[in-house]
Design a protein that fits this description.
Layout lengths: L4 H7 L19 H8 L5 E4 L2 H10 L7 E4 L2 H4 L4 H4 L2 E3 L5 H17 L1
Parallel strand pairs: 1-2, 2-3
Length: about 110
């Protein structure tokens, strides 16, 4: 829960109960993903949260430089300097915005 929503609403006079609706479990990169990231073909990674950026950066194979589409400026702040030149921030923080960012990266990577 980001932002203590239930606590904030309760303090504002709206009785609120908190429940975890889903839980993200971090998984290691698959062998196929590692091989792709170490290959010569560009890899585009759509990252939908700051946490996803952090998890990817922690697990990137050495010297891999994927192209990254991030959902927000907040997520972009977690991208390290080496990957920023291959980064696109979605114009809107939703699936449509991410699709546009991925398409733009695809076009850019084809020219590289």
């Amino acid at each position: 829960a980001r932002g203590n929503v239930a606590q904030t609403l309760t303090q504002a006079g709206i009785r609120t109960f908190e429940r975890i609706a889903y839980r993200q479990i971090a998984l290691p990169l698959s062998d196929d993903a590692r091989n792709a990231l170490q290959g010569s073909v560009p890899v585009i990674a759509p990252l939908f949260s700051p946490r996803s950026v952090t998890l990817l950066l922690e697990s990137l194979p050495e010297k891999s430089q994927p192209w990254v589409a991030v959902i927000s400026p907040n997520a972009a702040r977690r991208v390290d300097a080496m990957l920023r030149r291959r980064m696109m921030i979605a114009k809107t923080p939703d699936a449509a915005g991410m699709l546009d960012a991925v398409e733009a990266l695809f076009a850019a990577s084809a020219k590289a």
